[in-house]
Structures are given as structure tokens and as C-alpha cells.
Amino acid sequence: MGVCVLAGIILLVAVLHRVLRMDYPRDRAEAYHARTLRFLITGVALSFAGALIDMFSHFMQE
């Protein structure tokens, strides 16, 4: 659960870096942004899954 959240946060920071980067390859901009979008979706999904697993595990303990 913590690993999912940590991996998600790392991916989201990588997405922020890619979005704010000014020297990306202009000739491959579409592929660059498509990969960034995949990173964003994966990062959000991992963070959400980690939080959901954590909530579910705490709910089952009580």
C-alpha cells in the first residue's frame, strides 16, 4: 500500500518535470505528450489504489 502511493507520487513528480520541461524534442512532441499522459494516469491510479488498499485494510482490522 505504501509502495503504491510512493510509486504514484514519484510518477506524478516525473509528470510535473515533463510538463514544465522546455527543451523536449519538438519533432516528437505528440509521442512525448502521449507518454506524459500515460505517466499521469498511471501515477494517479497507483496513488488512488494505494490509498484504497490502506483504507480497506484498516476497515477490515476493526
Overall description:
The longest helix has 33 residues, at 29-61. Helix 1 runs antiparallel to helix 2. This protein has 62 residues and is mainly alpha-helical. The model has no long low-confidence stretch (mean pLDDT 93). It contains 2 helices and no strands. The chain has one domain (2-61).
Tell me the series of helices and strands, N- to C-terminal.
Answer: HH
In one word, what is the shape? elongated
Q: State mean pLDDT (0 to 100 scale).
A: 93
Into which percent range does the helicity of residues fall? Answer: over 70%
Output the radius of gyration: 15 Å
Number of discrete helical segments: 2
Count of all domains = 1
Query: How far apart are the termini?
Result: 18 Å
Low-confidence stretches: none
How would a crystallographer describe the biggest sheet?
none
> Given the helix and strand composition, which structural class is it?
mainly alpha
Strand content: under 5%
Total count of strands: 0
